[in-house]
């Protein structure tokens, strides 16, 4: 009889979750280390959506809001910090999941993935509400007075997209929790 030493036990399923992997070229498969099939799954589509929307939010904030960051205040900084951090982490996880199926199976069901998505959801939703308030209060009056004031619609799009991606991260956190529990 073998006694457990109390260390962690990692069990990996033998069934592939992404398919054969690689890219189909005529009669063969190329680059079998890449698992494009992951993007066809629900977790892959969600992770891709998180990455793309975070990138759009960051682009809107930098291209339109940077000149008005002193007017918007700390709401701009919190939104930009949230978008930058979550974009980088989501893009890194997406790249790891596409390149390595083993990484997907290990990280996806880990505490890191669940906590990252839960915290990202909270940060996006709170920064969206803060940016909403600052945009309406500080930029709203200037938008109605100054013609061609394009930062106002861009910041509206940024806080709306932040709310959307916050909900997506919340859903992803729920799915990660289910996978963490083993269901």
UniProtKB/TrEMBL annotation:
Keywords: Membrane, Transmembrane, Transmembrane helix. The chain crosses the membrane at residues 78-99, 111-132, 152-175. Residues 38-181 form the MARVEL domain. InterPro entries: Marvel. Coiled coil: none annotated. Its main location: membrane. It is found in: Membrane. Signal peptide: none annotated. GO terms for cellular component: membrane. It comes from the Eukaryota. This is MARVEL domain-containing protein. It comes from Aphidius gifuensis.
């Amino acid at each position: 009889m073998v006694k457990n030493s109390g260390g962690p036990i990692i069990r990996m399923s033998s069934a592939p979750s992404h398919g054969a992997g690689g890219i189909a070229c005529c009669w063969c498969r190329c680059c079998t280390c890449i698992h494009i099939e992951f993007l066809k799954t629900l977790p892959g589509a969600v992770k891709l959506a998180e990455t793309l929307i975070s990138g759009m939010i960051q682009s809107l904030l930098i291209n339109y809001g940077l000149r008005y960051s002193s007017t918007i205040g700390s709401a701009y900084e919190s939104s930009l910090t949230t978008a930058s951090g979550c974009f980088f982490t989501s893009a890194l996880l997406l790249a790891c999941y596409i390149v390595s199926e083993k990484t997907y199976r290990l990280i996806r069901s880990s505490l890191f993935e669940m906590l990252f998505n839960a915290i990202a959801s909270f940060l996006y939703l709170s920064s969206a509400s803060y940016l909403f308030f600052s945009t309406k209060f500080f930029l709203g009056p200037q938008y109605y007075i100054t013609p061609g004031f394009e930062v106002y619609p861009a910041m509206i799009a940024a806080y709306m997209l932040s709310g959307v991606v916050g909900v997506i991260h919340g859903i992803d956190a729920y799915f990660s929790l289910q996978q963490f529990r083993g269901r």
